[in-house]
Amino acid sequence: MENRTDKNSYTIIFAIGMVIVVGALLAFLASSLKPMITENERLEKQQNILYAMGVNDNDDTSANFVSTEDAPELFGKYIKKQLVIDGNNAEEDDQAYLIDVKKEQAKAKNGETRRLPLFVGEKDGQTFYIAPIRGKGLWDAIWGYVALDKNMVVQGAYFDHKGETPGLGANIKQRFFMDDFIGEHLLSADGTFKGITVAKGNADPKNNDKTDNEVDAIAGATITGDGVTAMIKKDLRLYLPYFETLNGK
């Protein structure tokens, strides 16, 4: 007598049943964990924004965020305004930090207006304007937050990546690279937007000249450096009209 479990139909039914059960379990876990994931993303963005404006737990060499426990309180203390720039309008929005830059870039490619989040912070009597940027490295996405003064001079930066090469492109999130951007000018003397180029063979390796629109590249990470250059020039250029208005131009 043939064992019913030896039939092909049994195998197919069993496989379908397992797919349904596993799918339902994964859907349940995704739904259950979504609030936690959303909260973690919120805290990470707050830490990134604070880091860029100099609110962090850095030691002499390492880049360190404020703790997730302290981030909400410090974000509320130092970030005075959250703005959304939409075309020629800039309006306050306390949920601006939840804007997905990747989705906004996709909207712009489709001819839609891109919303630009901008965070206005104050620390030690100084005002910071922190903008998120996003681009493509060697292997995957790279992104960051750049803090500017009203003249578009960099006051701080934080960069991160999804899958750059350890010891090479992944070093964009190391202090020695990020700190090089502090003091760099995005504009030329006549007010033209130039951005900042991560330059291989830079003639100023110690980065003493802050008006040459260049920082020294990471050895062996040319493509990742080019990605940083591109996202700074492409994304921060979009904020130029706001800063011109800020300065009465």
Question: How would you characterize this protein structure?
Answer:
With 249 residues, the protein is α+β, with helices and mostly antiparallel strands. 35% of the residues lie in helices and 22% in strands. It has one domain. The protein is built from six helices and eight strands; from the N terminus they run H-H-E-E-H-E-E-E-E-H-E-E-H-H. A six-stranded antiparallel beta sheet has the order 2-1-3-4-5-6. It has a two-stranded parallel ribbon with strand order 7-8. A hairpin with a 2-residue loop joins strand 3 and strand 4. Helix 1 packs across helix 2 (71-78).
Quick tags:
single chain; 249 residues; alpha+beta; 6-stranded antiparallel β-sheet; two-stranded parallel sheet
Query: Averaged pLDDT, please?
Result: 89
Per DSSP, the total helix count is 6
Cα shape: globular
Rg (CA only): 23 Å
What strand order characterises the main sheet? 2-1-3-4-5-6
Distance N to C terminus: 91 Å
Integer count of domains: 1
Please describe the biggest sheet, giving its number of strands, its sense, and whether it closes into a barrel. Answer: 6 strands, antiparallel
Give helix % range.
25-40%
Poorly predicted segments: none
Task: Provide the β-strand percentage band.
Answer: 15-25%
Number of strands: 8
Oligomer: single chain
Q: Spell the H/E element sequence.
A: HHEEHEEEEHEEHH
